[in-house]
Amino acid sequence: MLRVVVMVSGGGTNLQAILDAIDGGKITGASVEAVISNNRGAYALERAKKHGIPAVCVSPKDYEDRAAFNRALLEKVKEYQPDLVVLAGFLVTIPPEMIREYPGKIINIHPSLIPSFCGVGYYGLKVHEAALKRGVKVTGATVHYVDEGVDSGPIILQKAVEVKEGDTPEILQRRVMEEAEWKILPEAINRIANETCR
């Protein structure tokens, strides 16, 4: 059984997609052992509790500096002995120590077709604002392994989503989540759990 820790900063819709996929048999051979957030108010923590999954907050505000926070975050992740760490809207830079601890065992979902609209500064609505400003006709989402760069690790899955006339960043964000993110993130976890994407 693949032990999964999901890290999330906000509402946790990608987390919910993972939990629904496990419940519905679309992900086999994996279980979510814990949900960790940097944000005490993250609704993702409520989603975890409702599912009977340990929900933990490790906030940078509770530590004197970033190095102390990074150490605490890594120690908390290690407690759950994950085989896979899933960044599902986690808006904190993963410390190099964690990447070294879990090489090839951390994946991230990014709301564009990498290499477009990715890297430093591209997160959340900013990605969709940039896509609309550039006038692209197709956007999408990417699941990739995490390395020490930003959105630079090997790609596992991508799914394209049409950009429609009249789209706002919010409308486009929702469509990318519904049509791409909530499909390919569970699929990537299932592939890893069943050793079909290594």
Describe the structure.
Helices cover 37% and strands 21% of the residues. The two termini are 16 Å apart. The mean pLDDT is 96. The protein has a 7-stranded mixed beta sheet, covered by helices on one side. Helix 4 (96-101) links the parallel strand 4 and strand 5. It has 198 residues and is of the alpha/beta class. Keywords: Purine biosynthesis, Transferase. The record marks 151 as: Raises pKa of active site His. This is Phosphoribosylglycinamide formyltransferase.
The proportion of strand residues reads 15-25%
Can you tell me the overall shape?
Answer: globular
- Main beta sheet strand tally, sense and closure: 7 strands, mixed
Give the integer mean of the pLDDT values: 96
Enumerate the strands of the largest sheet in spatial order, edge to edge or round the barrel: 3-2-1-4-5-6-7
Number of DSSP E strands? 7
Share in helix: 25-40%
Number of helices: 6
H-E string: EHEHEHEHEHEEH
**Low-confidence residue ranges:** none
Radius of gyration (CA) equals: 16 Å
Distance between the termini: 16 Å
The SS-based structural class is alpha/beta
Quick structural overview:
(6R)-10-formyltetrahydrofolate binds at residues 66, 108. This protein is of the alpha/beta class and 198 residues long.
